[in-house]
């Protein structure tokens, strides 16, 4: 069931029993009970106020770094793709970025503005909201290294402004003191050469394309890198490159990527993740920790 209401040039969209396979980069996942896409910030606030207390909520950007099980998500998905995605250059040397803005677009915007320090975002396949939620990183840099404040929203639809000091930030992990969700942030960058920064963005995008299975359904890096090592190296060392379970396969191009060869279910992907964990732990003593967020019910 679909409901659309136009608001200020954008549409509020509410879908019922919407297959999440349409909205995740793995192209797997059962239905969400409700799938909501706000028209704007005010619309989002009003919607949150209307939800029952305790309603499970899943925030969705580009659908990367996420595995929704085949039984679906028995709650409400709030989809930010194409919403709250403004990017604004501020003084001095700052960007204000909406949570729905694709990270690669943020990198390009900063480069055009002659600002350095955001090029690494080109290597992250997601939105700014997702990057904030997990302290996403690439090419040796991490999101929260550049964050000077964030804007959040709570279940009551109230918007807050927070500083990094209010969060516990670690490698691929951000712990908040309260239940709020990111809707934007400000990034501190440095002035630099516009052409040089553009070239750096293009270099990093080329490096990503050459080293990762871009164009094949995946969710980005599957496992966190253990301290002092790389998950891809451990997986490859254990002879798991190319290993398949159903329609899911460890990428031949990058061992820390699991791809959907075309027929995978979420159960195939999750089962392959468990197999990789078990083999790597048995042979190396290291238990790989998932980087992807797993939600929902089994079929």
Would you kindly provide a written description of the structure presented here, covering whatever features stand out?
With 299 residues, this protein is α+β, with helices and mostly antiparallel strands. It contains six helices and 21 strands. Helix 2 (103-112) packs antiparallel against helix 4 (194-211). The longest helix is centred in the last third of the chain and has 19 residues, at 266-284.
Layout of secondary structure:
Elements: E1 2-7, E2 10-19, E3 31-37, H1 41-50, E4 57-60, E5 66-68, E6 73-79, E7 87-90, E8 94-98, H2 103-112, E9 115-116, H3 128-134, E10 137-138, E11 141-142, E12 147-154, E13 159-162, E14 168-170, E15 173-175, E16 180-188, E17 190-191, H4 194-211, H5 231-237, E18 244-245, E19 248-250, E20 258-260, H6 266-284, E21 293-295
Parallel strand pairs: 3-6, 4-6, 5-21
Antiparallel strand pairs: 1-2, 2-3, 7-8, 8-16, 9-17, 10-11, 12-13, 12-16, 14-15, 18-19, 19-20
Helix pairs in contact: 2-4
What does this entry show, briefly?
By secondary structure, this protein is an alpha+beta fold. The chain has 6 helices and 21 strands. A hairpin with a 2-residue loop joins strand 14 and strand 15.
Major beta sheet, strand line-up: 1-2-3-6-4
Q: Which oligomeric form is depicted?
A: single chain
**Radius of gyration computed on alpha carbons:** 19 Å
Q: Largest sheet, if any?
A: 5 strands, mixed
Helix content: 10-25%
Number of helices: 6
* Count of beta strands: 21
Q: Distance between termini?
A: 21 Å
Strand content: 25-35%
Low-confidence stretches: 1-9
> How does the helix and strand content classify structurally?
alpha+beta
